[in-house]
Write a structure and sequence with these properties.
204 residues, alpha+beta, 13-stranded antiparallel sheet, 2 helices
Length: 204
């Protein structure tokens, strides 16, 4: 005699497992990880380098062999995007900036952000808003504070294996620097924000 209850239970288990796998695959298809990697120029780089050189000249009575900054710095900004809505959330590491030579300055900003892509095609503009903290140290550094950051940009070849894009942003995270006693304005300390940033990147 056929036991229909046992068959029904087995079918229920099979259907349940199939549904779980189907939902999992659907969730994976709805979310996609992207990793932008590129170069950024920030407007405050030259001010940091100038302040470092002035402080060294003050301490060494004018003798400074060299202070060189890296005006274009590397950054990485991985994020996950919900493809049906175009909403994304991610982190940002960099841009790493340094002063080399006689001076000492290193800054590796860390940030969190949300972004929105209004178009679903191969090319889309985007808006990005977040918070940034400078992990900074150096001869002229007195302190730092967290600030808001925002950007607009566009990504190309989003449906390909490797995309690329460009971005213009504003960084309001702050760095406090000292100018030394002989600074011509008479103001010993100054507070810089990240200012305007320009970025070019590839997306993996």
């Amino acid at each position: 005699m056929i036991d229909f209850r046992r068959i029904q239970k087995k079918l229920s288990v099979v259907l349940c497992i199939t549904s779980i796998f189907s939902l999992s695959e659907a969730a994976e298809s709805n979310f996609k990880w992207r990793i932008p990697l590129g170069l950024t120029h920030a407007s405050y780089f030259s001010e940091i380098n100038d302040a470092t050189q002035r402080k060294l000249e003050e301490e060494t009575y004018g003798y400074v062999e060299s202070t060189e900054s890296l005006p274009i710095a590397l950054f990485c900004a991985p994020y996950v995007e919900h493809m049906p809505t175009g909403l994304g959330f991610g982190a940002e590491i960099g841009p790493l900036s340094m002063v080399l030579g006689d001076g000492s300055y290193t800054n590796l900003p860390l940030g969190l952000n949300a972004r929105y892509y209004p178009l679903r095609g191969n090319t889309s503009p985007y808006l990005k808003l977040g918070l940034r903290k400078n992990m900074v140290s150096g001869d002229v550094i007195e302190g730092d504070s967290i600030g808001f950051c925002g950007a607009v940009g566009v990504e190309f070849n989003r449906q390909g294996a490797v995309g690329y894009g460009l971005e213009v942003g504003i960084d309001k995270s702050e760095i406090e620097i000292t100018h030394g006693d002989n600074w011509e304005s008479g103001q010993e300390n100054d507070i810089l924000d990240g200012g305007v940033t320009f970025s070019l990147f590839v997306v993996f």
